[in-house]
Structure formats: C-alpha cells, structure tokens
Amino acid sequence: MNQSKRAINMLEGSLWDKILRFALPLAATGILQQLFNAADIAVVGRFTGAQGALAMAAVGANTPVIGLILNLFIGVSLGTNVVIANSVGRRDSASIQKAVHTSITFAVVSGVVIGLFSELLAETIMTAQQVPAEVLPLAVLYFRVYMAGIPVILLYNFESAIFRGIGRPKVPLIALMISGVLNVLLNLLFVVGLHRTVDGVAIATVLSNCVSSLILLRFLMKTEEAYRIQLRQLGINGPILARILRIGIPAGIQSAVFAFANIIIQTAINSLGTVVMAASSAAYNVEVLIYYLLNGFSQACTTFVGQNYGAGKIDRCKKAMGLCLLEGVAAMGTAIVMVLLIGRGILSIFNNDPQVIEIGYVRLTVIFSAYIFTLSYEVLSGYMRGFGISVVPAVITMIVICGVRITWIYTVFPKIHTFLCIMMAYPFSLSATALCMLIALLLLRPARKRRRQAAQI
User: Fold this and answer.
1) Fewest CB atoms less than 10 Å from the CB: which of 10, 35, 81, 85?
2) What is the CA 248 to chain-centroid distance, rounded?
C-alpha cells in the first residue's frame, strides 16, 4: 500500500510539525461545531417571537439525551480511527478496506435503529427528564426531527474517524465549514423566513449534516486510495467490527458516564440561582473552545501511535506522545493567556451583567488552572488507545473523575455552599485522574510489551 500523497506521513521524517498539522485542524473542527451550535441557539432564541424563551428551553432540554447518544457513538468511532491507523502502519490494504466498509455500514444501521426507537419513545424520554408541561411539546418536536437525521449525523462522525485514521484531518474540517455555513443560512431561512420554531432549527441541522456526510462519502467513493468505498462491498465484517467495538465501546461509555457526572455538577450549580447558572453557562461556552484545542493533541497522539504501532516503530510511538504533551502545553498555555486577558469582554457578549461576568471569570480561572491535568490524562489515554488499550483509560476516567466529582458534590458542597466550592471539584478530579493515568501507563508499559512480542516472533 502506497502512502497517500496528501495524507500526513506519520511513519517517516520529523514528527513535531506533522503533529501540529494534524492536531490543529481537529481542534478547529471541534471549535467550529461549538460555534455553529451556539448560532442555532441564538437564532431560535432571538427570532421566534414570544416563543423565544420556550424554544430555547426546548432545545436545552434535548441537550443531555442527544449529547449522551452522540458521545457514545463518537467514542465508538474512535475504534475505527485506531483500527484504520494500525492497518495503515502495517500497510494492510485489505484490513483498511474491511474497516472502512464495516464502519460506514455500522454507522448507518445504528443510526436507523436509534432513530426508530427515538421516534417511538420521544415523549417518554422528555417526560422522564421532567421537562415542564409548557415546554414539552416543543421539546418532543425538536427531538423527533433531530433524531430523524441521526443516521447522517453518525455517518459524518464515522467518516471523520476514517480520515483521521489515514492522516487527513483537513477533509472533515472543510466539509464541516461548508455545512456549518449552510446550517446558519438554513436556520435563518426556516425560522426568520418561514416562521418555524424548534423544528426549523432541527431541520436545518439535519440537512446540513446530510450535506457534510455526502461530501465525505463522495470523496471516499472517488478516491483511488486503499480507503475507497465501493457500495457493493458495504457490509459488516465480524472480526473487524469486534476490534472496533473493543476499543470504541469503553471510550463511548466513558463519555456517557462523564456526561452524567457533569449533570450532577450542573444540578448543584442550578441550586445557586439564575445569575450563577447564567455565569456558568457563559463561561462553559468559552472554556470548551480551549478543551477542543487540547483534545486535538490527544487524538493526534492516538492516531500517530496507532500507525507507528502497526508499523512496529515503537520509539516513534513514545516520541509522538512526548511531543503531543509538549506542543499541547505550548498551544494550550498561549490560548489560555489570551482568553484570560480578554475574558471579561468575551463573557459580556453572552450577558453584560457585572455579577454574571465576575462569576463566569471565576469559573474560567479555576478550570483553566486544571487544564494541564486534562491535557496530561487525555494524551496519556490517547497513547494507550493507540496500542489498542481502551478499557483501562476508560475505567480510570469513570471511577476517578466521576467518583471524585459526585462525592465532592454530595459531601463537601453541602458544607461550603458556594460556586467556588463547586468549581474546585474540577482541579481535584482532574489532577487525581492524571496521576492515576500515569501510574497505569507505568504499570502497563505497552511499548515494552510490544518489543517483547516482536522479539519472540
């Protein structure tokens, strides 16, 4: 198998520049997704007249359950990323073909099944979340329309994982830029022009995701590389799917449980009143942008290690991890300093209440102070996943982060009933997770284990 001329060659030459070329487009993809989501909420809140508040509440009521489903399958798609990266490293064209066709089929079939169940259980799901009666009809409407498009939404995410695995992260970014602009225009068309409410925003989201997934699908069908899709070959390869799920399911469950722990924290924040809720929400929309930056280096570590592990180049695996940590610290530190310098001004865009701005700034300073631990455990877990070790980082994250945060909220917060106290759950949980991840890596030593296996062959 020849290395694609446009793909990043992770197996030869310098690593530091290639890691940047891989990580930064991934970070930009996450940031753009967040900005486009914010635009959705802004349109539905500003242009639905008297129903503005109800419409925003309806979209917000959908966030936990939709986020849970998407996080689960985005985690599973990480298995596709690793399996393809390993196959690229081994120059195994046959395995790449099987993984690509299995992933596409799995994404569409899973999307159809989940979509059908969601249509049947929409009202039950919203009622179980205790959505207020006046919001319930709009919340159910949004959920049904959005979930009707879940097959193409999952398809885009698995296609993106394929491009990450082969070393071409810019392609999904370009598709997202096109569909994101289309999403904003369609939002305005349906909500402002056609006077729709939450269904207009949901339809716009589905149509724009359909466009992005079709762009990537067409690219995969037209390429002459080993990852080309041929419709007649679509189907499930059992052993390949088992490998994808073995890596992806722990990562998906980790994301789902992580979301549950954050719901517990949000409940505690809600108990402090609307001003604190508004401040925390505004700060979250700022801090998550930096998270996508460091997550880009985590995914870069997974893919670079995955390819070099497949090629048997273990020294490059370790070097890639070290460079992802160093470059991640530099990029993240620069971004944090810039954001903190203008943080109050950024927060004022969401709400110009001085109290909201100050409370939001408290959240930014506390969370950002702990992001060094976030970067550390993300990159270390990405390193282990590149070797196919997925259960261990997932279990550590679930037990330590979720355990510390839930324990903190139910033991410390009742005694110190302040916003700062809630925020301190983050540095404690993140530092403990980073330490446990380092200990696990030192105990497992996947690079040493791989060398021993190679010596025995």
Assistant:
1) 35
2) 13
Q: Quick count: other Cβ atoms within 10 Å of Cβ 452? A: 9
Cα atoms in the Cβ-side hemisphere of radius 13 Å centred on 218: 7
Domain range list for the chain: 14-236, 250-449
What does the block give as tokens for 127?
């009622």
Compute the distance between CA of residue 457 and CA of residue 36 in angstroms, rounded to an integer. 51
Kindly report, residue by residue over 28-48, the tens digit of the pLDDT.
888 887 777 777 777 876 777
Distance CA 304, CA 378 (A): 14
Spatial contact of 294 and 370, defined as CB atoms under 8 Å apart: no
3-state secondary structure of 76: helix
Amino acid at position 282, single letter:
A
DSSP string, 45-62: HHSSGGGHHHHHHHHHHH
Q: Provide the CB-side half-sphere exposure for 452 (13 A, CA).
A: 6
pTM of the model: 0.82
Amino acid at 203: I
Buried b (16+ CB within 10 A) or exposed e, 180-191: bebbbebbbebb
Contact 329/378 with Cβ under 8 angstroms?
no
Exposure of 311 in the CB half-sphere (CA atoms within 13 A): 20
Q: Do residues 390 and 251 lie in contact, with contact meaning Cβ atoms separated by under 8 Å?
A: yes
How many other C-beta atoms lie within 10 A of the C-beta of residue 128? 10
Q: 157-207, pLDDT tens digit by residue?
A: 999 999 998 888 889 999 999 998 999 899 899 988 888 888 898 999 999
Query: One-letter amino acid identity for 62?
Result: N
Q: Spell out a b/e string for 130-166, using b for 16 or more CB atoms within 10 Å of the CB, else e.
A: ebeeebbebbbbbbbbbbbbbbbbbbbbbbbbbbbbb
pLDDT, one tens digit per residue, over 441-457 is 999 988 777 666 655 54
Mean pLDDT of the 362-377 span? 94
Tell the residue number behind the tokens 């590149």, with chain if given.
386
Do the beta carbons of residue 375 and residue 297 sit within 8 Å?
yes
Q: Which of 288, 265, 287 is nearest to 276 (CA)?
A: 265
Which of these, 297, 317, 319, lies nearest to 307 by C-alpha position?
Answer: 317
Which residues, at least 6 apart from 37, have a Cβ–Cβ distance to it below 8 Å? none
Better-scored residue on pLDDT, 161 or 277? 161
What are the tens digits of pLDDT across the range 325-335?
A: 999 999 999 99
